[in-house]
Amino acid sequence: MWGCVLSDACIEALLKRRSVRVFKDAEVPLDMILKAIEVARYAPSAGNKQPWRFVIIREGEKLKDLAKILRYSRPLMNAKVAVMVLANKDESPTSYMVDASLAAMYFWLALHCIGGSALVSLPHFCSPASRSGFHRAWGRSGPPQRPHILSI
């Protein structure tokens, strides 16, 4: 044995996680999102650098802008909230994408376990056109230039 035993409930939770593209017309409690982010902080990262950031987006117009700007993100048009995961190359140049991917996965699994659902969209390093779209839509509060948008 490997020193750990996965319970049937844990295995079942992993196997039942799905990406959702049609959302209920209901507000998502902030405490649910914050709890999932708290779990994600415990994801492994090289040297414990934790080169990720989570950005919670609740403004309807910004969600619609994201749906237009980011590839594969059209379902955000009807979402009440989105959480963007950013990976920061400056904080961990050799492992930032793997580290932030692990944090994103911890977030998605935690959200599933506490009764939430998620669309997993991978915008693939936001193109320059997308970046300018962010800045047009959000003014100077768009994402910083260095972090890569890993997922939303």
General description of the model:
With 152 residues, the chain is α+β, with helices and mostly antiparallel strands. It has a single domain (30-151), classed as NADH Oxidase, CATH 3.40.109. The protein has five helices and three strands, in the order ααβαβααβ. It has helices at 8-16, 30-40, 60-69, 96-113, 128-138, and strands at 52-57, 82-87, 148-151. The radius of gyration is 16 Å and the shape is globular. The N and C termini lie far apart (37 Å). The relative contact order is 0.21.
In short:
By secondary structure, the protein is of the alpha+beta class. The protein has helices at residues 8-16, 30-40, 60-69, 96-113, 128-138; strands at 52-57, 82-87, 148-151. The chain has a three-stranded antiparallel beta sheet.
Secondary structure layout plus pairing:
Blueprint: H1 8-16, H2 30-40, E1 52-57, H3 60-69, E2 82-87, H4 96-113, H5 128-138, E3 148-151
Antiparallel strand pairs: 1-2, 2-3
Instruction: Report the major sheet.
Output: 3 strands, antiparallel
Query: N-to-C SSE series?
Result: HHEHEHHE
CATH class label: Alpha Beta
Uncertain parts:
none
Spell out the key features of this protein.
single chain, 152 residues, alpha+beta, NADH Oxidase, three-stranded antiparallel β-sheet, 39% helix, 11% strand, globular
